[in-house]
Design a protein that fits this description.
Helix 7 packs parallel to helix 8 and helix 9 runs parallel beside helix 10. This protein folds into 2 domains: 159 residues, Lyase, Ornithine Decarboxylase, Chain A, domain 1, CATH 2.40.37; 225 residues, Alpha-Beta Barrel (TIM Barrel), CATH 3.20.20.10. The chain is built from 13 helices and 18 strands. The termini are far apart. By secondary structure, the protein is of the alpha/beta class. Strands 1, 10, 11, 12, 13, 14, 15, 16, 17 and 18 form a 10-stranded mixed sheet that branches. The longest helix is centred in the middle third of the chain and has 19 residues. It binds ligand LLP. The site of ligand LLP has 22 residues, from helix 11 and helix 12. Ligand LLP binds next to helix 11 and helix 12.
Amino acid sequence: MKAYFTEQTNFYGSSKPSELLREFGSPLYVYNESILRQRCREMAGLVPYSNFRSNYSIKANSNLELLKIVREEGLHADAMSPGEIHVLLAAGYRPEEILFVANNVSAEEMQYAIDKGVVVSCDSLSQLRQYGRLDPGGKVAIRFNPGVGAGHHAKVVTGGENTKFGINPEMIDEVRAILKEYRLRLAGINQHIGSLFMEPSRYLQAAKALLDIASNFEDLEFIDMGGGFGIPYRKQEGQQRLDITETGRGIAQLMEEWTSNYGKKVRLKIEPGRYVVAECGVLLGTVHAVKQNGSKTFIGTDIGFNVLIRPAMYDSHHDIEFYRDDVILKTETQVATVVGNICESGDILAKDREVPDVVEGDMIGVMDAGAYGYSMASNYNNRLRPAEVLIGLDGTPRLIRRRDTFEDLMRGFL
Ligand code: LLP
C-alpha cells in the first residue's frame, strides 16, 4: 500500500483542496504550520552540544510569515544576498543572528551587510581582500572548501575542486597574510558541501576536515558546517528518513573531541534549508488536459516549471497525489507523463509515472514542494506566480502571499 502524505498528516486541516483552489486560485502553494514547527525543532536540537545553533538557509523559502515562525522556533539564519538580508531584517531577525555567506559579491553588496552589522563570510582571497579594504580592523568569516562534496545532482554539489565555492585550505598562509594586512579578526569559518544527503558519512568527513582547518586559527567564535540534510522525496515507496539522531551525535562527538584540544567551546552552527521547509509545502494544481501522443499519455496541468523548477532542472522526483471531489485517487491504471503549461518540451513534472485514471478538472498535489519551490519560481511566459497559503495550527488557511497580478508583470517598465 502506498503512503499518502496529505492523508497521513491531515495536511489541509479543515479545508478541502477544492476549497483552497476556489478561494486562492490554482496553482497554489499550501504550507502546514505544524509540520514546519516540527522540522524546525528537529534542526534546532539536532546536535547535543551545548553551544549549538541552527541557521535556517532562507534560499529554500523566504516567505516572510514562514521566516517569523522559524525564528520563533529558535533558529537563526544565513543569507546569500542583500535581498535575503533585507527580508530577514523585515521578519525580525537581528543582524547578529544572520550570516552573509557571500559568493562573488560586489563591494556595494558587501558594504550593505557591513552597514547593517551582519557578519560576512568570504569565499575567495579576492573577496577577503575586498572585505579588508571596506572594513579594515573589522570582523570577518571565511568559507573553506574541504575538498569533499555531496548532493543529489552535480548542480548542487558545492564542495570539492569542481565547484566554485570556498577557499582551498592549502591557501591558509595567504589567508593569514590578508587578515594581518587589514588587521581583520577571523570570527568564524564555514563550509557547505552540497544539498540533500540521506546518510551522514560525507558530511561527517567534511566536518572533520573543517575542524582540522579550524585548528589553524586562534580564538574562533563559531564554526559553521553548512546544510544539506536530506528529506525523503519518495515517501510513497517507503523511503526512510535521514537518521537525525545518528547525524547529530556524530557531529557532537567530533566537536567534543576537537574542543578538548582547542580549549574553548566554540559555537557550532549548521545551515539547513530543505530539511526545515520542504515537507511542510504541497503545491496544488489543476488538470486541464489529458492527451495521447502516439504511445505516450500526457497529463497537462497548470504546474509549469515556472512554478516548480526542480524536476526540469535536476530531474528531481516529487511524489504526486491526484484528487477528484477532494478524495485521493488511489488506483493506478496507467503510465503517463505529467506536464505543465510552459512552451518547452522539458516542462515535465513527472516522467512515465504510474498514475490513476485522471480526467480534466481533477486536482493534483505535488508533495515536498516547500523548499526551492516558490523561491525558484519565475514569471517565464509571463505567467503569474501563485499565492501562498498557510494552514495554521488550528487547521484554518491564511493567505501569506498573494498571487501575482498583471500589474506585477508591468511594474518594472518606465
Ligand atoms: N548553506 C549554503 C551556503 C548553501 O549554499 C545552501 C544551499 C544551504 C546552506 C542549504 O542547503 P540545504 O540544507 O537546503 O540542502 N535548488 C536546489 C538546492 C540548491 C542548494 C543551494 N545551496 C534544489 O532544489 O535541490
